[in-house]
Design brief:
The protein is built from 18 helices and no strands. The protein has about 500 residues and is an all-alpha fold. It has a domain of about 350 residues. Helix 1 packs antiparallel against helix 2, helix 9 packs parallel to helix 12 and helix 14 packs across helix 16. The longest helix is centred in the last third of the chain and has 32 residues.
Length: about 500
């Protein structure tokens, strides 16, 4: 081995360990929704890239197929920068009249931020008591954000935060795509993902049995929402577990199959008779799978369970479909946008009490989501070119609520519609381009090996990615840093698998 090869291999192992650590560390503090946890996750991603750059040529990080997909993400960050460019208010009114109108009702002239005037007017009309002096919106002591009211983004601070948040998964994707080119690093990385998924499932299972796990929380638990450890929202836990469980299923099939990747009775018999330590590995992955699946079930997330079933179907059919696997995934993305159209087709209602979502108490969650998606699509139609600004959904959404609606929503519970509403047509084009690059440059090659028999580990990762894409139709899982980080790492593993041109399977490396 050359002197250059040793540092490269050492760097890959260090980054592999860091990636495994980040998967678990990101899930612990509420899915990394805490600011300090998000910053540490970003620091870890930068550290991984720095180590890889130190150990080799930076150009290798952006080689195909990872490079083009990373450039799509970078273009979205660049578009967020355009949304932050200060410009005359007259130009803002010309390019995005709806944003300018909301800014006029939201920000105090001359700087400073206050409660939106339209909310104050609504409060008075509906008899809501306001504190003394709240009839007019005085600004805070400081002048607030100097860019407020002068950018295409409705709320510049939120757009800056969102742009920085996008950088983390992009860097994790590039790091995983580089490290996972080594079959052994890839194999260990997937075991690490399965291990953390099992631990999260175990924590949720114990909590469902009455275990008080206050020691796992860094602050007081929210009183209005029972958490599913280590996440606050059970749907976010389900998103994490569905990916980890499908990766574990891929590992199980890999251990049971022959070194060539063929799964048959003689090969399974050989594995059960302890071929190359196969039996201990089967026991380990079986325990982790049991905990992961149990945690997914006790989360009682309908979206998570349906997404897992969809991923399991992909796992079972990927070897048969191979080049056509993109068809159901495209259908999922189209459905993600189509649900907003379905909501818009319903009758418009003026108040919360007469709204369509109050007509079906038995399926309140489903109808509320349809109403929410209709409003989100309407946000896109009102801001088709520029969007409201990356990361500004919760502030823009306030203007689309009916009389009597005062609920605060951080996410649209649909990642596709939220991206369209925040980034406009530019975001839609970048989404379509990223999906085309993913399907053509990553997914199809990864599932089409030289022997026409995709590896079970690769199929498991493809199923996990497919599941979270499906879950994103009904929830905002990719808005949660921990789930976005895991998704990015698994996407990087798929990108590395797409570069494989060796006939031997990853699972054969350990047999």
């Amino acid at each position: 081995m050359s002197g250059q090869g040793k540092p490269n291999r050492l760097a890959r192992r260090i980054v592999q360990g860091l990636l495994v650590l980040l998967v678990g560390a990101a899930a612990y503090p509420y899915g990394s929704v805490e600011l300090w946890a998000t910053e540490w996750l970003c620091f870890g991603a930068i550290l991984c890239i720095a180590i890889l750059v130190w150990s080799g040529s930076p150009r290798r990080l952006f080689s195909r197929p990872a490079g083009p997909l990373a450039l799509c993400g970078a273009a979205l960050v660049l578009w967020a920068g355009v949304q932050l460019v200060p410009m005359p208010r007259s130009l803002v009114r010309l390019l995005s009249p709806k944003v300018a109108a909301i800014q006029k009702d939201t920000f105090v002239p001359g700087g400073g931020e206050a409660l939106p005037r339209q909310l104050l007017a609504r409060a008075r009309a509906e008899g809501v008591r306001l504190s003394e002096g709240a009839s007019t919106p005085p600004g805070p002591a400081d002048r607030g954000d100097p860019l407020a009211g002068r950018t295409l983004s409705l709320y510049p601070f939120a757009t800056r935060r969102a742009a920085l948040a996008w950088i983390t998964p992009i860097l994790l994707f590039l790091a995983a795509a580089r490290v996972a080119r080594d079959p052994m690093c890839r194999y260990r990385l997937l075991w690490g993902v399965s291990g953390w998924s099992g631990l999260c499932g175990l924590a949720a299972l114990l909590q469902s049995m009455g275990w008080s796990a206050s020691a796992l929380w860094s602050q007081q638990q929210p009183g209005d929402l029972p958490p599913m450890l280590p996440f606050v929202n059970r749907n976010h836990l389900a998103g994490f577990l569905e990916m980890g469980t499908l990766v574990g299923l891929g590992l199980t099939l890999a251990v049971l199959s022959r070194p060539t990747g063929r799964l048959d009775r003689p090969g399974i018999r050989m594995a059960l008779t302890d071929r190359a330590w196969a039996a201990p590995r089967l026991v380990a992955v079986g325990v982790l799978l049991t905990f992961s699946l149990a945690g997914l079930v006790v989360s009682r997330s309908r979206g998570g369970l349906l997404a897992f079933v969809f991923g399991a179907i992909v796992l079972a059919s990927a070897r048969v479909l191979r080049g056509r696997i993109w068809v159901p995934l495209v259908a999922i993305v189209v459905l993600g946008i189509g649900v907003g159209v379905i909501g818009l087709m319903g009758p418009a209602q003026g108040t919360m009490e007469t709204g369509s979502f109050s007509s079906s108490a038995g399926e309140a969650s489903t109808v509320v989501r349809l109403d929410l998606w209709a409003k989100t699509l309407r946000m896109f139609l009102d801001h088709p070119v520029t969007g409201t600004g990356l990361g500004t959904f919760q502030w823009a959404f306030a203007s689309y609520q009916r009389a009597g609606e005062w609920g605060k929503l951080d996410y649209a519970h649909n990642d596709y519609l939220q991206l369209l509403s925040e980034a406009g047509i530019v975001g839609g084009v970048l989404l379509a381009l990223a999906l085309a690059v993913f399907f053509r440059g990553i997914l199809a090659p990864a599932l089409s090996g030289l022997d026409k028999r995709p590896r079970f580990t690769t199929v498991g990762v493809a199923a996990a990615v497919s599941a979270i894409l499906a879950h994103s139709v009904v929830d905002g899982n990719l808005q949660i840093p921990a789930n976005a980080a895991l998704f990015a790492i698994l996407l990087g593993v798929l990108a590395a698998a797409a570069r494989d041109d060796e006939a031997n399977a990853i699972e054969g490396e350990r047999k």
